Amino acid sequence: MQMLFNSTYDVYWQLSADKQIIMNRPSQVSYATFAQRLLAFNIDLTIFLVLLVPMVLFIADDRVFWCVFLVTGCLYHAGFESSSWQGTVGKRMGKLQVVDRHGNQLSFSQAFLRILLKNVSLLLFFCGFFMIYFRSDRRGLHDLLMKTCVVYRG
Predict the structure, then answer these.
(1) Residue 23: phi, psi to the nearest 5?
(2) Which residues are in the RDD domain (predicted)?
């Protein structure tokens, strides 16, 4: 077993052959639960819909609207998750942060790819999201593929 120290976030990583456990001095870091993440998503969705629904009045073609909706959503998530907030407005309100496997802030490209991979979970009938509920480390398919996790910083 090996211990690594990341001074930026004061996070220790305990590495073993089968599992990675994030620990924070003096107690273990809390992974965001399915309910916390769902609440944050609903807050973001509400904000997003309030801001984008008026666009329906100006964009006549449904395909163009959905493309704008998808691109804007990806930029919203990637921008906020790669910012110093390390999460969207909903995650900030819920005291959640998205971090990489070392406890660091994501780059814009990492955050953008992470949000694109969330769409894979949608295509798999939400199975990638339900993993959050059943896994002890509360990571979804997109988190596993991007080596990220969402933690509670309350």
Answers:
(1) -130, 140
(2) 31-146
